[in-house]
Amino acid sequence: MINNISTIKDILKGKFLIKKNAYKSWNFIIFLALLSLISITSSHLMDHKIRKMNKINEEIKELKSEYAYIHSKYIQMQLESFFKKKLSNRLKHLDSPPYELKYESNKIINK
User: Fold this and answer.
1) What gap in Å lies between CA 17 and CA 19, rounded to an integer?
2) Which residue in 48, 28, 30 sits closest to 38, CA to CA?
3) Angstrom distance (rounded) from CA 80 to CA 87
4) How far apart are CA 40 and CA 48, in angstroms?
5) HSE-CB for 72 with a 13 A CA cutoff
6) How far apart are CA 35 and CA 32, in angstroms?
7) CB within 8 A of 3, min separation 6: which ones?
8) Alpha carbon distance 99, 111 (integer Å)
9) Is residue 25 a contact partner of residue 16, using CB atoms and an 8 Å limit?
10) pLDDT, tens digit, for every residue of 66-94?
11) How far apart are CA 53 and CA 45, in angstroms?
12) Is 74:65 a contact under the CB 8 Å cutoff?
C-alpha cells in the first residue's frame, strides 16, 4: 500500500521523466500531445462546418418561403378575375370572336 502511494507521488512529481529510461516516457507523452492536438483541431473544424450548414439551412428556408410567396402571386396574376379587375377601364370583353383582316392588292377583306 505504501509502495502504491509512493508510486503515485513519483508520477505526480514527474520523476518518471528524469529516469535513465525517460526517453520512452517522452515519446509516449509527445504521442499523446499530438493526438490531443489532432482531436482539438478536428473538433474545431467540425464545429465550423456545423455552423456553416446551419447558416445554409436557414438561407434555404428563407428562399423557399420567398419562392412560395412569389409563386402564389404569379398564380393569382394568371386568374381571369385579376385581369378583369386590373383592366376594367381599359379593355372590354368581346361577345363575338375576333375576325381576321387580310390585305390583298389594295383591298381589305373581312373573314
Assistant:
1) 6
2) 30
3) 10
4) 12
5) 5
6) 5
7) none
8) 6
9) yes
10) 999 999 998 888 877 777 777 766 766 67
11) 12
12) no
Chain position carrying cell 493526438: 35
C-alpha cell read off for 39: 482531436
In this structure, which amino acid lies at residue 46? M
Residues of the chain with pLDDT > 70: what percent?
A: 83
Cell digits for 6? Answer: 509512493
Contact indicator for 27, 16 with CB cutoff of 8 Å: no
Q: What is the pLDDT of residue 39?
A: 97
Length of the chain: 111
List the grid coordinates of 51. Answer: 455552423
